[in-house]
Specification:
mainly alpha
Length: 157
Amino acid sequence: MKQNKQKGARQRTMRTTELQPAVATDAYRQTAPRKRNSSAILFFILLWVLLIACGVAGAKWYSDRIQNQVSDRLETQTAAQIARMQQEYDARMTQLETGYKAQLAQLESKIETLNELLTFTKDNADTKTDNSNKLYTQLAEVKKQLAELKKNLDVLR
């Protein structure tokens, strides 16, 4: 009996379900079409515009940050290179100046020696010998070299 009751219930539900789609489609056709909510669409569009604007602003901020970091690094490297070049330049100038001063000291000592020799030769010279002219010529040449070296030293300074 239970089986018969269940069969009967199934048949009744089948009949009603067969009829329901016909009724449901008629009801669907009779209802007015839904209006789209324009404020929801506007909100969706504004949300996308806001997301895009945030992305553009973030990219701009990040690129500015990276550019500042690169320029800071470049400035630091440039300052270090300039300082190193300045030290090298100062060392070279000091070396050249020391070299010229040493050469000047040698020439001055040679000039002093020649002056002493010339003075001695003048005092002891006979009228027959003309060695004093040779010494004067040599002394003049040494003085010219000394003047040249002093000019070069002044130029380097």
